[in-house]
Amino acid sequence: MKAKFIEEQKMTQWWLWLLLLGVSVLPFVGIYQQVYRGEPWGDKPMSDLGLIIMAGFMVCLILLFWSFKLKTQIDSQHIQIKFVPFVSRSFSWDDIKSAEVIKYGFVGGWGIRLGTQYGTVYNIKGNKGLALELKSGQKYLIGTQKETELRKFIEELD
């Protein structure tokens, strides 16, 4: 059986979920007050339909954040990443010039970041990741929460 490094990360930052859920409650409060109590919500109230659409949008936004996953799978042949639901990429070791586990600085947030000093960044949280430079000159950074395990795995592949 071939050795593999496998990691799956999800957005588990409590403060992000508190913010999302806190903001998402607002249209439901408006619906309750305007539709069920019959009182306008605020001094320039939105239409009932507008509040219902806003509530639906917030539910979809929460479901989207809930679905975010960064899956990394590395073996002796290639590195495969999936940033669910957006990106699936695979890199052959033959195309990789260098691979190093690093601690990186601020890259503008979490998710998919383009045009950073590390090239394209795929991360969910934290500040550690696998920095790749391809022979073509393209750069990528794949975030990890398993820094020690990943570093050991990469070293064993050499």
What's the structural domain tally? 2
Radius of gyration: 21 Å
Main sheet: which strands, in order across? 5-8-9-7-6
Largest sheet: 5 strands, mixed
CATH fold field value of the largest domain:
PH-domain like
How many helices in DSSP terms? 3
How is the quaternary structure best described? Answer: single chain
Q: Which architecture name of the largest domain does CATH use?
A: Roll
Measured by DSSP, the beta-strand proportion falls in 35-45%
Instruction: Output the structural class.
Output: alpha+beta
Order of helices and strands: EHHEEEEEEEEH
Structure write-up:
This protein is an alpha+beta fold. The strands form two sheets. A five-stranded mixed β-sheet has the order 5-8-9-7-6, with helices on one face. Strands 1-2-3-4 form a four-stranded antiparallel β-sheet, covered by helices on one side. It has three helices and nine strands, in the order βααββββββββα. The model has no long low-confidence stretch (mean pLDDT 91). The protein has two domains: 10-67; 69-157, Roll (PH-domain like). Helix 1 packs antiparallel against helix 2.
Keywords:
single chain, 158 residues, PH-domain like, 5-stranded mixed β-sheet, 4-stranded antiparallel β-sheet, 3 helices, 34% helix
List the helices and strands and how they pair.
Layout: E1 5-10, H1 14-36, H2 48-67, E2 69-74, E3 78-84, E4 87-92, E5 96-103, E6 111-116, E7 119-123, E8 128-134, E9 139-143, H3 147-157
Helix pairs in contact: 1-2
